[in-house]
Design goal:
The mean pLDDT is about 95. The chain is mainly α. Helix content is about 45%, strand content about 5%. Strands 1-2 form a two-stranded parallel ribbon.
């Protein structure tokens, strides 16, 4: 399960669809609807929220928004708590880990998307983040296993 801190525009088609499916699974886990994945480290940052289902709903909403931009149809009716949520912090070190991991995947699977991502860094030299996150200084997150 990979719930990217990066903006979903960075993901290729396969990555966006996989992220949607995996995050729907995460939503089910957070609602207590599964036996598996309950202690998955990617869920820690959502579990720490006052309303984890609202936080994951905001994340899913961002994925669905990107799907709309691309002309895909993600069933927003599957989002239990759609809408906004206060931004969650993500460390710069975590962003770096995810960015490197994503570029390796894209280089192997869809090199043209990897190039689009590299060009999109712009003057800041930092990748865009999903709207649910804001970058703070620090090393990679303690829950990261990559």
């Amino acid at each position: 399960m990979r719930i990217w801190s990066l903006h979903p525009a960075s993901l290729d088609r396969q990555g966006l669809i996989a992220c949607w499916r995996e995050t729907l699974l995460a939503q089910k886990v957070l609602r207590g609807g599964t036996r598996g994945y309950r202690s998955h480290p990617q869920l820690l940052r959502f579990r720490e929220q006052a309303d984890p289902v609202a936080a994951i709903g905001a994340y899913l909403t961002g994925l669905a928004d990107e799907a709309d931009v691309r002309g895909y149809r993600f069933d927003r009716g599957r989002i239990i708590s759609p809408g906004d949520h206060d931004p969650l912090p993500v460390t710069a070190g975590q962003v770096d880990v995810e960015w490197s991991h994503l570029l390796r995947k894209l280089d192997a699977r869809t090199p043209e998307q990897a190039e689009v991502c590299r060009r999109a860094l712009g003057s800041t030299g930092r990748p865009r983040l999903h709207g649910l996150f804001h970058e703070v200084s620090g090393p990679r997150e303690s829950w990261e296993r990559a």
